[in-house]
Amino acid sequence: MRGEVRELLPLHPDSVVPKLRSDWSVVYQVTFPNGKVDILPQDAIFHVRILSMDGLNGLDPITYFAREVLGEAIAADRQAQGMFKNGAKLSGVLSAEGTLNDDAYARIRDDWEKTYGGAENAYKVAILEGGLKFKEISMTNEQAQFLEQRKYKRAEMAGLYRIAPHKIGDLEHATFSNIEHQSQEHVTDCLMPYATKIEARIRVSLVPKARRGRVFAKFNMNALLRGDMAARANYYTRQIQNGVYSPNDVRELEDENPRDGGDIYLTPANMLIDGKMPAAPAKE
Description:
- Among the domains are: 13-47; 62-84 and 93-158.
- Helices cover 39% and strands 8% of the residues.
- The chain has helices at residues 61-65, 67-86, 102-116, 141-160, 179-205, 226-241, 247-253, and strands at 16-20, 26-31, 37-41, 92-95, 133-136.
């Protein structure tokens, strides 16, 4: 209706292929669920390219940049599952003073694996008989390296999407003193770049040209930056009191509509002469 968007219908990415024509215009080849294939103009498709190498096709970070990383992470996860599924939590060696016969050896081995094997039997109290001794084995360098590798792969996968490590449960470098700043960095370094791309695409694809000066899309991040709002409020207060900003200047920075009488710039009282503003210098 009058060139305005009335609804958005989702299309699976695999069913849409963007194409660049000889006149540098972009069209989209769409395969609909009923098998029909149609060519749609650019203004009929709302396409947000978060990552792109050619400006035409959007890229999936995992598919194009992290297949090897993801494969190694999956392999490490399967290895860890095997370790906890088949290994005993009490990692060590049972030793006897004498030589065990086959029946005694088989009975002790089966009882030990049944009682203490697997993650579900972790931390049970071990009962030793017949002079048996248990010697705990510390973690080997290979096991320690395996755990460090899992941590590294987890952080590397998060980095592909600019996600802060503590947002995926990696609190190794998080403290009570820096967790707030890390959360703010997650908003400014991860969410805001994505939000900016979406806002720009909404402006181009969904807002009619005649209304772009008055209508715009903006994600409100204030709820995610509450810790930083106090600092911004103090900064704006000082700037208004010193006459640097007017209230409407601040409202514009905060994506708020201007208010009547909000374009006044204040002058601190200690800058007045006999209660009056100093005269402007004479023009030459």
